[in-house]
Amino acid sequence: MIERIGNCKVIEEVGAGGMAVIYKAIQEPLGRLVALKALKTSIAAEPQFSERFEREARFMASLQQENIINVYDYIKLGGTMFIVMEYVEGVDLYDLLDKSDGLPVEVSTIIALQVARALNHAHFRGIIHRDIKPANVMISKRGDVKLMDFGIARDESLSDLTETGTGLGTPSYMSPEQILGDKLDQRTDLWSLGVVYYQMLTGKKPFLEDPQRSVLQKIRLDRHVPARKIRPKIPRFIERILGQCMEKLPADRYSSMQALMHDLEDFLASRVGINYNAYMVNFLKEKGVLSNDEAGGILATGAIREGQKMVREDRRIIRSIGLLHAVVVAAMLFGGLIIQLASTDPIHERPRASASLSLDPGAVGYLRVVADPWALVRVDGTDVETTPFASPISLSAGVHYVELVNPYFKELTREIEIRAGETVVLREKLALDSSGVERKDAP
After folding, report:
1. Which of 65, 358, 365, 436 is most buried, with most CB under 10 Å away?
2. Active-site residue among 131, 149, 263, 372?
């Protein structure tokens, strides 16, 4: 075994795959644990593999996001190459699923959301992962979810390393267009994440090979078995999310990873009331990945305590504000005061964006904005918030003018009618300047 690479002292080998070997090491003089990914000497001389390995290092080093493994260094030495990266102590999703016949809905959704955040960050920078699978998702002992292995990722601004008409990836998680060797975009990762999400929820892959047909044929031609037929307690809302991720045609899937994130966040908002890391740590303890002492020590640390404190503090503040608003409204009504909200634009007589408090709750509607990739939302000339945001915007009933501002794309303006008791969902893909509006029950 290798003993030292650069300033890294190798401790032990912790894993190996077809192309690379992973070592646990200490980076001196910082004294921090790192993982060393070494390209196998037997294939390092092949230009295609060495270029792909180097490209992986560049991709991961350029993606600074909490749900993506950090890369610290890249070393060429003795006829091979090494990526020095963050060492994550925990379990990969493959092994976690091996211990379970499906994961709880909340745990599955937290993991899916964190992976979606990692992919959303990569997609914004033009990088497609193309190999989303359980073995490439790590869950740390602190409850972090980390996406790794960008070995076959592709940068849309660079040439591909595969020939036209060929597919790279892991068969069970490949999208139909990936199997056919078509040109891929970000929506192929949506499909693969949908497959992983389905497997987490049901304990089974949606497409399995049998003596009559290969898994690749089934992915291209068959519909997956609805998740609720396997686990009836899976919410219908989640089943719809899975269906939209695994549509055969990319155009029928979510328009972006961010749009998927909104639905996952909406679901978790009503189901998980504590810090997601704390929730995951408790689950890992239940599964025996962590001992009671380990879990107790982690939950007692400042980071997770702060997360829980923030949730409690946010609720306390909201209750206080609600009480204050109620007192103010009662005083105004008692005094017979009449407040008239008038537009400052006399030409169009636009109603301005209202606060969440209204004197007439029956005349309030809501606006939710899903912008791809992101945008500052301006309502009737007033800056409101930058997407993505968790709660819808409260607006008075009537016509409002919504502007989506992103310095990298053409500014968009939409005229939206808000109706009392309804939520308007405005979906915009800035690059294509296309839009769609749908309505659903108010929260």
Report:
1. 365
2. 131
